[in-house]
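Give me the fold.
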Amino acid sequence: MLPISVVLAVRNEAHNLPRCLEGLRNCGEVYVVDSQHGCNLPKLRPSAGRRSCSFDYRGGWPKKRQWALDTLPLVYGWVLLLDADEVMTPVLEAEIRDAIQQPGRDGYYIALQMHFLGRQLRHSDASFWKLSLFRREGPATNAA
């Protein structure tokens, strides 16, 4: 098990969610935060470390991810923020497993790779880095 809390922001993502969740199967906990826009999300099994909750955005602050960080009872000291159209690969999972063991590090930028019609876009500005993995307050708690 990868000892991280994943906050998965969704809105009209029923078609992307199964693939995204499959990539997160080894994560300690996953919260699916839905914006209640009628995307007919599949029911999640809370016993499998998956929980869903609703966020009613009314404009202004906080937005979905900040609300999740401020409100949800996250168990682990490390948090990964994802969108439902992003997928954790086995290579990324291994890199995260190694990265969270490094002392003195509080966050990591993750390179996003864009794909179109099943192929990675290589010759464009379609790749970028995003601060997606970070330690919450204080040292990691890494609950068992």
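The CA atoms of residues 44 and 50 lie 6 Å apart.
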